[in-house]
Design brief:
The protein folds into two domains: 112 residues, Rossmann fold, CATH 3.40.50; 106 residues, Rossmann fold (3-Layer(aba) Sandwich), CATH 3.40.50.1400. It is built from eight helices and eight strands. The chain has a four-stranded parallel beta sheet, with helices on both faces. By secondary structure, the protein is α/β, with parallel strands linked by helices. α1 crosses α8 and α4 packs across α5.
């Protein structure tokens, strides 16, 4: 049987900086696992789309969502793509929630100069899927624990409430005089990062990719799903 292909499926973006970051992520996956074929795919905005990529491959396939939680794109877009190739393709779990993501968030907050007593707003893209919101809340709780019980709330850049700006305002009202830092729960630059930067926080951490822990996590998701393909 031919070697399975890792289809690294991101959301897709019109941002050239965002595309470059995700391309770097894919390259790092291939470099970390010599001999592994890594193909690009997307669920929106940017071609090639995941269904076309899966259909065009004649080897076993594991689609690894370069997405931080479940939701419509994982369940529907990626789900349909793998369903179109029964017995040959399988979807791995999304990257989050996972302890490695908390490590990445901590590193990015440190780089941004966040202090231990900052109030943190974990800012995600958002989804209409309750499971996605639950995953973000789980990550917020884990980040709070990692920061010694620091206040960590959540906000959303697109779908879901509160918005990041509202979450920042609420944090200021609840904790007068405290610095409010937005932790970007986003992989790469794009329009959502712009919204985070306009939300009125004292500082905003950088997007999470590229980071070695993300590579480790994506390859673990691939390995977890691989045995079910073969």
């Amino acid at each position: 049987m031919s070697t399975p292909v890792l289809v690294a499926c991101s959301h897709g973006t019109r941002s050239e900086a965002g595309r470059a970051v995700i391309a770097e992520f894919r390259s790092a996956l291939a470099a970390a696992r010599p001999g592994l074929r890594v193909e690009a795919a997307h669920v929106d905005v940017e071609e090639p789309f995941v269904g076309d990529v899966v259909a065009g491959l004649d080897a076993p396939v594991v689609v690894v969502p370069l997405l931080l939680s479940t939701g419509f794109h994982v369940k529907t877009d990626i789900g349909r793509a793998v369903a179109s190739a029964p017995g040959r393709a399988r979807a791995a779990e999304p990257l989050g929630p996972d302890a490695l993501l908390v490590k990445v968030l901590q590193d990015r907050l440190a780089e941004a100069g966040a202090a231990e007593d900052d109030v943190i707003v974990l800012a995600a893209a958002g989804s209409s899927d309750p499971a996605a919101s639950a995953a973000v809340e789980e990550t917020a709780a884990a980040l709070s624990a990692a920061r010694g019980g620091a206040v960590v709330t959540t906000g959303y850049a697109a779908a879901g409430t509160p918005t990041v700006a509202d979450a920042v305002s609420a944090a200021r009202a609840a904790h007068p005089g405290a610095r409010v830092t937005v932790a970007s729960y986003l992989l790469a630059p794009g329009q959502f990062v712009t919204r985070l930067n306009e939300a009125g926080a004292d500082r905003v951490s950088a997007p999470m990719a590229p980071h070695p822990a993300l590579v480790e996590l994506a390859l673990r998701r691939f390995d977890e799903a691989l045995v079910m393909v073969l």
